[in-house]
Write a structure and sequence with these properties.
By secondary structure, this protein is α/β, with parallel strands linked by helices. It is built from nine helices and ten strands. The strands form two sheets. The protein has a six-stranded mixed sheet with strand order 6-7-8-3-9-10, with helices on both faces. The longest helix has 16 residues.
């Protein structure tokens, strides 16, 4: 579970908060979609949850560990896939995965089993002996997903994880997200594709100008609006105001 309490962040000397007094949670056993227009504060929020950026105010607790006060313990709880897969390009795919397994102290037998399983599901087995610089964007994205999940974290945090994936790999990742949540774990992922959120999420959190303007089920969201408004129109309505 991830719990945010009165979390705020301001950059530079600006009085405008990039993230403003966020209080919400990502419960176990569920998939939460994090949705908002460009510049709304999604990336800043995810960076604070994962410890890349320190909040100015408030607390973020992951499975009972405060990300600021207990950074190592908190970071062991989750796997994070950022929005850019262009990392460690000079390494071979298998070298990157072994590095990830070393960081998280994954035993040798378990890492081999999990690497083989994930690589097979994502169709990446034959590419692991090649350097990451030779990979397509989609292949790099799949490798980053595998690296983030090797230590079998209970919490998954994914920033636009389906971008660049081929249909088969996209389907595999969505199935894995469903399986992970069904096992009692939590998944938080950002997306700008509302149809994906509609088909995949148990909950959605909508952010606008740094504030959470809605958090709940899609049924609860639709209940706020009369008529036959589409999810896209509801989203535009909620995020079109300053």
């Amino acid at each position: 579970m991830i719990t945010l309490t009165n979390v705020s962040k301001t950059y530079g000397n600006s009085n405008k908060k990039a993230v403003d007094s966020q209080t919400w949670e990502i419960p176990d056993g569920s998939i939460t979609g994090f949705i908002g227009p460009n510049g709304a504060g999604k990336s800043t929020t995810l960076k604070m949850i994962t410890g890349i950026v320190t909040p100015d105010e408030g607390s973020i607790v992951i499975n009972g560990h405060d990300i600021v006060k207990e950074p190592i313990a908190a970071k062991k709880q989750f796997g994070f896939v950022s929005d850019s897969p262009d990392k460690f390009l000079r390494l071979k795919g298998i070298e990157y995965l072994r590095f990830c397994a070393d960081v998280y102290e994954v035993p040798e037998a378990q890492r081999r089993e999990r690497i083989d399983m994930f690589a097979s599901r994502f169709g990446l087995t034959d590419a692991l002996s090649s350097r990451i610089m030779s990979y397509s964007h989609g292949m790099r994205q799949k490798l980053m997903v595998i690296g983030a999940l090797l230590h079998n974290p209970s919490v998954w945090i994914l920033d636009e994880p389906l971008t660049g994936l081929d249909p088969g790999s996209s389907f595999a990742l969505k199935e894995m997200m469903r399986e992970h949540a069904a096992a009692g774990n939590s998944v938080l992922f950002s997306t700008h594709i509302l149809e994906i959120a509609e088909r995949l999420c148990d909950y959605v959190a909508i952010i606008n100008h740094g504030r959470i303007v809605f958090r709940g089920t899609l049924e609860q969201l639709r209940a706020r609006y009369s008529g036959e408004m589409s999810l896209e129109n509801i989203f535009l309505e909620m995020t079109s105001h300053a």
